[in-house]
Amino acid sequence: MTDSYYNLSFERAVLSSIIFEPSIFSSLTLNPNVFFLEAHRNIFRAIQSLNNAEKPIDEEFIRIELEKKKIFDERIMVEILTANPIADITSYIIELKKMAKKRDILSAVNKIKSISDEVDGDELLSHFEATADKLRDDESLDIFSIKSLHDVVIEEPEFICKEWIPIPKRTITIFSAGGGTGKTMAALQLAMRYIEEESYEKKVFLWLSEDPAGLSKSRAADIAAKVLNKSFMQLNGLMDISDNATFPVMTFKSSGEGIVRPEFYQMKSKLKPYDLIIIDPLIGFFTGDENSNAHARQFMQLFTQWAAKENKTIVFIHHSSKGVRVGGESKTRGASAFVDAVRAVYEFEKIKPTHDEDEKKIDKSLRRVFLTKDNYNASKHFGFQQDIKFFPPQQIFTEQTVKDYDATVSTKKSGLIKDKAQPPRRTTLPLGANIRIVDEPSNRELTPDEQAILDKKIKEAAASGIKFE
């Protein structure tokens, strides 16, 4: 039999992909006869048995299953495990099914030929038609299912954080912005809002590889206290982070074909407990040509399938291209396939003053957010543009004289203290307040006792978190 009737490399790739990613098995329409090699059919049957018994589909359990029947072949198993798993095995399965169909037709023709001398023409034709009908009815070549529209259950798109920045569930969203715009601050706030929205019952994972974990924690604590007015301690055990270096999840051949690396499956396994996954930056896990739609499409397909099959909501942090926005045009960088693969794209920009607007009056804690792609009608909740608070309010210095600390004054200490001409005012200052002590000179020097009182008051203020300029 010629190579046009089978492809052992394809068979190994399909079996390898199932072993590395068992969750795909339940969605496949395959039977053992799709595989040409008997040993491959045996392994597939073992996988079927393990799946039916709700046992793990892995090398050891497959070995046990085959050794029971004394048909385990170590060499064949090694060949499969060393084959590269494929991101999307649909094309491979279609080709294997076509080859299996050709084998079935060849087998049927040979059978008809073998009985041609024993029957008359009408009986031979009848046998031929019955065989042809059987081959047509064989569902092993089915590549999609058909449903009655009447029987389909109506579903509306679901969102997390619908009242803030609506993120479609069970798919991918992109946050895109230039450097220093606040992408990470938005990601941290999204995580905390989601946890609160889900009554502290869901977990979030953030891969923030561009900043140390300690800095991300500091930012998160600031957002919790000063933007959300929440206790950061409530998030304990629900919001996990990694600041490890990123790694490629797929490599690409010169032909453009993407090969999934084992690290991707390890990452999926480790992140099973999390419902919302935020990855910063997207490009850290992508090693293909950023402007290649073929590369970008295969890469994004890994994550869209993961989100759909395992009920994950994934947010990628990505960079915008430089230049001025024109209307609703997207500025998300790289191949259009990155944007094509997701259901929503939000782009962030700093708010710039208009020609008659004073830049000093612009609230620096806000960012202008544009919804530039919307497949699930997020605009119904968000509109297409909003100014949203990403940062804690900026520190504003409050001018106070030293009389607010109940001290008497003179010019000798940089003119910080004012004579006690009237009863002193006492001011209660919040923890962490920012104070500028202004110069109100008098005409006499401090006495040693007055100097000691001033020094004591300044130390007490500094110890409570008050900052001096």
Automatic annotation (TrEMBL):
It comes from the Bacteria. InterPro entries: DNA_heli_DnaB-like_N_sf (IPR036185), DNA_helicase_DnaB-like_N (IPR007693), DNA_helicase_N/primase_C (IPR016136), P-loop_NTPase (IPR027417). Keywords: ATP-binding, DNA replication, DNA-binding, Helicase, Hydrolase, Nucleotide-binding, Plasmid, Primosome. Pfam families: AAA_25 (PF13481), DnaB (PF00772). GO terms for biological process: DNA replication, synthesis of primer. GO terms for cellular component: primosome complex. Residues 5-96 form the DNA helicase DnaB-like N-terminal domain. This is DnaB domain protein helicase domain protein.
